Structure formats: C-alpha cells, structure tokens
Amino acid sequence: MPDGEAKSVRSESRFGQGFVTDIWYFAALASDLKPGRLARYEILGQPVLLGRSRAGRLFALRDICPHRAAPLSAGRFHREASGAETVECPYHGWRFGADGACAAIPSLVEDQAFDVARIRVRSSPVAESQGLVFVWIAGEARGEAEPDQPPPVFPGVVGGRPRLVDRMEFDAHIDHAVVGLMDPAHGPYVHQQWWWRSKASQHEKAKRFEPREAGFAMVRHEPSKNSRAYAILGGEPLTEITFRLPGLRWEHVTVGKRQVLSLTCLTPIDERRTRITQIVWSDHPAFVFLKPFIAAGARAFLRQDGAMVNLQNRGLKYDPPLLWVDDADKQAKWYHQLKREWAASRRERRALVNPVEPATLRWRS
Length: 365
Hints:
By secondary structure, this protein is of the alpha+beta class. It is built from six helices and 21 strands. The chain has helices at 3-8, 174-182, 187-190, 286-289, 291-316, 330-347, and strands at 9-12, 23-29, 37-43, 46-52, 58-62, 76-79, 85-88, 95-96, 102-104, 123-124, 126-129, 132-137, 164-170, 204-212, 215-221, 238-244, 248-255, 258-268, 274-282, 322-325, 359-364. The protein has an eight-stranded antiparallel beta sheet with strand order 13-19-18-17-16-15-14-21, with helices on one face. The protein has a four-stranded antiparallel beta sheet with strand order 3-4-5-10, with no helix packed on it. Strands 6-7-8-9 form a four-stranded antiparallel beta sheet, with no helix packed on it.
C-alpha cells in the first residue's frame, strides 16, 4: 500500500466494547417523571429506579430489593410517621429512603434484634437540567462517588417545552449507534426523500471542526445546498453540530434571532441495545404551522437509521475488523480516541486532554 494511503486507512477491531463511566447519562425527560410515580429504566445493563416523590424530590436507586430481588419500581410510595416518603417493595413491604437506606422491615417483631440501618440499596446521583434528567454512572472502582462535574448544558433550548420528542431502540452497542449517527457520508444512500436529497445529489463538502468539552464540533456554517429541509426555515440559516461523550449529539440552527436545537441522546441499555431519544426545541414559527410534516420527517430519519443498523448487524455478528477511511470516518476515530482518553483521565485522576485538533475534513455526500 502506498505511504499516503496507509495514513488514511486503518482497521478498527476493538469496536462495540465497553462503556464510558464516571459521567452523566441522559435518562428521561423531566416531564416523564410525575410526582408520586416510579419508573424502571435499564442503563449500562443495570436496572435503575427513577422516582419523584410527591414533594417533587427526584432520586435514582438500583431497581432490585436486596431481600428477594423484586423490582422496587413495581412498589409504591409510603409516608412514614416522620413525614418522610419512602419506596415500599411490592413483595414484603421493605421500605427504602431516597438515599437508599432501609427505613423499615415490616415482618420484624419487637424483640428481634436486627439493625435495619445496615441495609442499603445503591443510589446514584441524579440531576434535572433544562427539562432533562441525567443519572451519574460511576465506574466500579469509584462505587457511589459523587459527580465532580455538572450535567451538560445545551444552547438553543428555547420556546418552552420541546416541539418534538421521538424515541427508538437500536439493536446495537452504543459505539455503533454513535458512529452511525455522526457518519456524514451515508445520507444520500440511507436518507433518500424528495424533500431532503436524492442519491444523485452529491457534492464535495469541506467542514471545519474544533475540539469542544469532552467532544468536538463542526463549527457554525451555512447548510449544504442539497439539504432541502433547511429551506422551510427561510432566511439564511447557520448551523453548528456538536458531539459530546458519552453519546450526545446536537445541531443548533440559527435563523436571525430564531433558533432550532435538535438534540439526540444515546443511552446504552446493555451491550446490544441503545435507546435513542430525539428532542427538538424551537421558537421558529415553522414548528407551529408545519409541525406534523417536520415530525413525520424526523421520525422517518430515525427509523431509516434503525433499519440500517439492523442490516449492518447481519455482518457484525461475524465480528469482522472494520475498515475506516479519512476524512469521512475521522469523527468515528475521534470518538474512540475520546473514549480511551476519558478512561485514562478518570483512572489517573486528572483532567481530560482532548485528542481532537482543529481540522478541515472533506468528503462527498
């Protein structure tokens, strides 16, 4: 292989393995968690109970009762004599506070010496920000260590409640889901609609990228001329697309003073499934008058990506090495470099050194 080619092509063999930890993962919309309700989620292969007390306090517990393993999320809230709210297990009524401490074991009688306070369910830090709920997933070595950073904040959360919300599960490890969604070259083949672009409409692109906090961004630019959907916004739209660990990708579009933020949150359910949540905010009037059409288009996009993931799985089951080509696959390489550097920085208890350097990437799509 010529020297110039060897630099631009490489094989990735350790792909779709491991998760980023000691970081905030998107779990739910704040509006999903009503006061007095319990909900079960699975994140990184572990069951998580998210609850909001009647007083409005949000908490996260491991969704397994330490007595006989029943899911606490199937239980209910109980008000103690002290006024505190606890979660009551549906099997034997064991009760746990929002911090995971056991408050009561109803089956005990007065003369049975048993220190209830020794029993705990693992709790996880949880934060509500911009109408989103994040759960801090600590690494095994850190256990229940408190977060040393706030949850991410996104630009362009405007117009009140989200205009669009769509959810889907991809049958894929988060690595494949992330790389598939940031891939700039699949559009003409996977997303072929009359209102977006055709396979024949391909142009050479040159986009400037810069490092950002725990990620990178395609810096603000005019959208490609063959991306027709932007036309509904009118004016002269400018867009910036950002990726941040562990699996957050957002496009922030400005049209004069109007804004559109399309946020994609990828949350690993386990090694083989990833939950995709697409959330759009905007103060642009197009999202009032054309909402049904925009929603249908966004839904079609996500399901086309899901169908391609299922097709890709036919080959991935043989665990082949993957051949990546610069510049179209450079973002995928950055993602894996960021994962490795994040793990090293947490292990060595130091600040992350972003491996992404400013660059202009070129491809056809």
